[in-house]
Amino acid sequence: MKDVIELRRSLSDELHARAFDHFSGAGRFIRFVYFVEDNADLIVDYVNAFLENVGQAPIPRMSKFATFKLGHYSLDFEKHNEFISISFIQKSNSLAVGLLPDAYDARSVDLPLEWAQLSPGKVFHAIWLEVGGGPPEELNEQKIHQVMQARAVAANQFSDGAAQVYFAFDIDSAGFSRVALFNSNMVASRLGRAVQRIVELETYRLLALLGFATVKEHSAKLDSIAKHVGEITNELAEQIKQPESNVEDMLSKLSAQAADLENIYSNASYRMAATKAYDSIVENRLDGLRVSRIEGFQGVKGFLNRRMLPAIDSCRAFSERLRRLSERISRAGDLLQTQTEMIIQRQNQDLLISMNSRAKTQLRLQQTVERLSIAAVTYYGVGLVGFAGASLPLVAWGLSLDVIEAISIPIIAGCVWLTIRQVKRRI
């Protein structure tokens, strides 16, 4: 019963583990995303050492989400299957027009950004989101490009025009991807949810594109495997028509290609599945914002569809190629197996014919030996009869030894023949 209660409590806590931060004024949300390889414990220890230095309790054991209030800012810790994130949330009580004066200035912001960058984990992505008041009147495309330090800026308004969001989708000189949110009249809770969705969208956007890197890494090898499998299939189609075929050589070639394909599958299958999941999260977060167009700017969804969708489609096509190529190899293997069975059947048939021929030869030899045996035994039997008759007074009895030997020949031969036949019947 206690275990059940603990399970219920843990499941209930999971629903409240990632509460939204309320933004009643201006502020910023800075997130560092680290890849989890073999260093997850090192990253956790690194964060715990920092928390100890500032007088905080360590991250609870087995906890995946934790929030710590550290004076003028908060630190959020999140642990996922393949990444860990550390986020700094800084809030202002006032909601002025535009962004804070120190927006995107890592040198003037009073946050331990350098400490986060020196983590034992590899920084995969860094996001800097600034929350400000309503957009200034002088804000235009040129001005926002200067603020965001980006080659292209995508923007939308959301929450029925109550706020505007601008994405840089680029990396600035300090290594951050910049996002600007201008809030005109959104309430604190809705603004907090919007900030969380935007940060997650930016996080999973880049994670989803990891699959495209995997596609580029393995595409050439996959093309080579497809080419060789095609050659093997063509060779198999030709050799099937021939009475003799080198199945062993083709099977060896096919096995080598199957091993290479399995290696690619083991390396890429997880990444392709993760890309699909991350892309779904990006779509979900975009739908949750319920964005609308800002005149003069390309929309976030349109920007991602033009830039990101081809990469995601490449991942889907790659996964489909893996599946189809695996099926081709399987079918080719089945054909080779069938061909092998046919060869074995032909060999067995030839062996049976050979065994039948040898059996007939052995039978003829056996029959010849039997005849010779009858003749030999008869010869020696007649000799014994002659030897025995020589000691008898056959002349006195009016008998001839030659006549007796001649009469004994068929009798002895018949007895020998009957004896051999009886023995064969018993066997």
Radius of gyration: 46 Å
Q: Work out the number of β strands.
A: 9
Largest beta sheet: strand ordering: 2-3-4-1-5-8-7-6-9
Number of helices: 11
End-to-end C-alpha gap: 77 Å
Give helix and strand order, one letter per element, not per position. HEHEEEHEHEEEHHHEHHHH
Oligomer type: single chain
Total number of domains: 3
Mean pLDDT: 83
Task: List the SSEs and their pairings.
Blueprint: H1 2-15, E1 27-35, H2 40-53, E2 65-70, E3 73-79, E4 83-91, H3 113-117, E5 122-132, H4 141-148, E6 154-158, E7 163-167, E8 177-183, H5 188-208, H6 210-240, H7 247-289, E9 292-293, H8 300-307, H9 309-390, H10 394-397, H11 401-426
Parallel strand pairs: 5-8
Antiparallel strand pairs: 1-4, 1-5, 2-3, 3-4, 6-7, 6-9, 7-8
Helix pairs in contact: 5-7, 6-7, 6-9, 7-9, 9-11
